[in-house]
Structure formats: C-alpha cells, structure tokens
Design goal:
The protein is of the alpha/beta class and 390 residues long. The protein has 2 domains: 7-118 and 218-238, Thiolase/Chalcone synthase (Peroxisomal Thiolase, Chain A, domain 1); 146-214 and 244-388, 3-Layer(aba) Sandwich (Peroxisomal Thiolase, Chain A, domain 1). Helices cover 37% and strands 17% of the residues. It is built from 15 helices and 11 strands. A 9-stranded mixed sheet has the order 3-2-4-7-1-8-11-10-9, sandwiched between helices. A two-stranded antiparallel sheet has the order 5-6. A hairpin with a 6-residue loop joins β10 (369-375) and β11. The longest helix has 17 residues, at 146-162. The radius of gyration is 19 Å and the shape is globular.
C-alpha cells in the first residue's frame, strides 16, 4: 500500500514530564493531552471519529479504549488499544494513518501516557508488571533480567564483535543533552553533560551506566491524524505520513536470533520503501532511546551507517540539533524523560515540531523529511515512520 500523502498529522500535544504523578491518574493526563492536541489541530471534540490508545499504567486494561472514550465523551467509529511496548506510540500513528487513508475515519486521536515510577526498573514487583508469563517463569528466577540486563547483553556483545567503546556510547547521551538544554519541557535541561560524567555515573549493569538509561516519569502526549483533504484547513502546517513499517523477531531478548542484528532493519526498510526515499534523504531522525545502545543499533540497522560501524559513526558525527544528523533534538527520553508509553510519542511529536518549524532555539536548518522509530521490549517490536514537511 502506498499512502501517497493520504494521511497527515494535524495536531500534537505533550504534557511536561513529571517525576511523580502529582496525585493524577492516567485518565486525567490523557484528557489534558487530548484537549490540547484537538485544539492544536483546530478541531472540536465532536470531530474526532477514531481513537487509538496505549495501555494504562495503573488502571485495568479491560475495555480500555471504551473507558477512555467514555471519559472523554467521544464516540469513535473505530477504536483500539495498541500494545507494542515502546513501539506502541509510533504503532498508533501507523494504524491511524491506515484508518484515515481507508476512509474509515476523518480525524483519529492517538493517546499515550500514564503514571510511572522507577520500580519498573528497580525491583522485582515492578519488573513483573512489564514481563510476559514466559519471562516470569523461565528467566526472572535466574537473575534480574528485565530491561537493564537485556540491553547490557546487547551493548556488551556489540563491544565484543565490533570494538565499540564506552566513550562512543556515552557521546550519544552527551549530544542529546545539548539539545535538551533548549527544550523547556525536558526533565534534565539544567546542565550540559560530558563523556567523563556519563562514564563516572554509577554502573547499573555492566557496561551500562546510570546516565545511559531513561528516567521513568509521568505524563501524556497526543497526536491527531487526519485525512489529507481535511488537513489543509488545519491551523498548523500538516505533516504527511509518507511511509511506515513494523517488524518483530522475538519477545524476550533470550530468544532473539542475534543481539546485534535487530528487526529495526526490517521495519525501517519497509517504511523507506513505502515512502520511496533512502536513509540519506532524512534531514533529522527521532529514535527511541531507552538506552544509548538502542540509538546506536537503530542508526546501524536503519541504514545510516554500516552494521558494526555505529560506534565510529556516533563518535565522528554531531547528533545535536546543530549537527550533520540531528537526532532526538528534544533531548530524547534520556534527557527529556520517559512518561510511560508517551516516551515513544515524544519522538513523533518532536519530529512534527521540527518539520513544522516550531522547535524554537533548537530548530534544525533542513526540515523536509524525518525518520521516527519506536522500539518495544528489548529490541523486539519495531515501528518506523517516515514523515514529510510542507
């Protein structure tokens, strides 16, 4: 299927990430984000006829799309929940584009967010809430596993196979912090980082340091995807969804065919093919960055540099908003924060801001095409987008 500019992003919103939920629940946060995105698209709540949501963080997921629709008092012609881990937000946008391109909806609201704490990473009960039954039964009894351990396996294997160094990985966090300093929404925008500071931060799971890991927090984000002919009336420049792709090769990293060859290669290839463009055509990239190794592997697997060359590529390339390949110009989740599933949506929203020319002091110079990637689990489910500005 070729989208041929049949679907565009017309509205966006992102609540400032907070270190705690401030007494709010997921529905409260989603309602705020929904209102702001609908207003940004120049629409009324009654114009929304599609709803896609990511799972809740603390409410029951039973009939969750209907719970959200009822709370918002919208009455969609199509609704669903998308659960692809960190790829869920990009996956919502993919599915919304298909719905509006098929004529099922005119304006589809994509919502993600929740109240999330560090227990997801740091204790057994927290890990249990985000692990499959197979992981709980066959992996957790033998060690910490979970996200930190899984990504540490990938990072250590990449170092072993290709000579990647801790300094190269740390530079990713440093470049993204440079951009975050100019993002008023970022949790960590108070001071710059150095490679030495990243490597001096506590070693969490060898070889991954604290400042190479996302900060779980609370918040919400929303995107409105509209049929192309209606997008022309939007108050902000519409951003066309030109290509999309998804892929999955495993659930748990234990069963991955490889620790360094990932399904990102397939999802990116499919998105670029649908859009009729190449990695070298991109003016900026917005890549899921739960860990620094995730960014490095995505750059390799999506074709921005050869496999195994990621370490040398990031060391020699300025990835900040001022650089040759602007990457995560909002600071990424490493510096902006990971508000539950809205962490993935922040990458979509930042790409839209840049393509609209609304990124303020961190605005990139060239803003025609952007590549966005969402990553779920430990390099498991992948959802890719190619977006185009005016």
């Amino acid at each position: 299927m070729q989208l041929s500019r049949k679907a565009s992003i017309t509205g966006i919103s992102e609540l400032p990430p907070q270190k705690d939920g401030r007494g709010l629940r997921t529905l409260d946060l989603l309602a705020q984000a929904a209102r702001l995105a609908i207003e940004d698209a120049g629409l009324l709540k009654s114009d929304i006829d599609g709803l896609l949501v990511t799972p809740p963080s603390e409410d029951t997921a039973f009939m969750w799309p209907a719970q959200v629709a009822e709370y918002l008092q919208i009455f969609p012609a199509s609704l669903n929940m998308v659960e692809l881990g960190g790829a869920s937000a990009a996956g919502c946008v993919n599915r919304a584009a298909l719905l509006v391109a098929a004529g099922i909806c005119r304006h589809c609201l994509c919502l993600s967010g929740g109240v999330w704490g560090t227990r997801v990473f740091n204790d057994r009960e927290g890990k249990s809430a985000v692990m499959s039954g197979a992981e709980l039964e066959y992996e957790l009894p033998y060690g910490p596993m979970g996200f930190n351990s899984g990504y540490a396996l990938a990072a250590r294997r990449h170092m072993h196979e290709y000579g990647t160094t801790p300094e190269q990985l740390a530079k990713i966090a440093v470049d993204q912090r440079r951009s975050a300093l100019l993002n008023p929404l970022a949790l960590f925008n108070q001071s710059a980082l150095t490679v030495e500071e990243v490597l001096a931060s506590p070693l969490i799971v060898d070889p991954i340091h604290l400042l190479e890991i996302v900060r779980p927090c609370s918040g919400a984000a929303a995107v409105v995807v509209s049929r192309a002919e209606t997008a022309l009336d939007a108050p902000c420049p519409p951003v066309a969804i030109l290509g999309m792709g998804e892929a999955c090769t495993h659930d748990s990293i234990v069963y991955a065919p490889s620790l360094t060859a990932t399904p990102i290669a397939l999802s990116a290839k499919r998105a670029f093919a649908m859009a009729g463009v190449k990695p070298g055509d991109m003016d900026l990239v917005s890549l899921y960055d739960c860990y620094t190794i995730t960014v490095l592997l995505t750059l390799e697997e999506a074709g921005f540099c050869p496999r195994g060359e990621g370490g040398r590529f990031v060391a020699s390339t300025d990835l900040s908003f001022q650089g040759a390949l602007p990457c995560n110009t909002h600071g990424g989740q490493l510096s902006c924060g990971q508000p539950s599933y809205a962490g993935g949506m922040s990458h979509v929203i930042e790409a839209v801001r840049q393509l609209r020319g609304q990124a303020g002091k961190r605005q990139v110079e060239r803003r025609r095409l952007a590549f966005v990637n969402g990553n779920g689990g430990v390099l498991s489910t992948q959802s890719s987008l190619v977006l185009g500005g005016d």
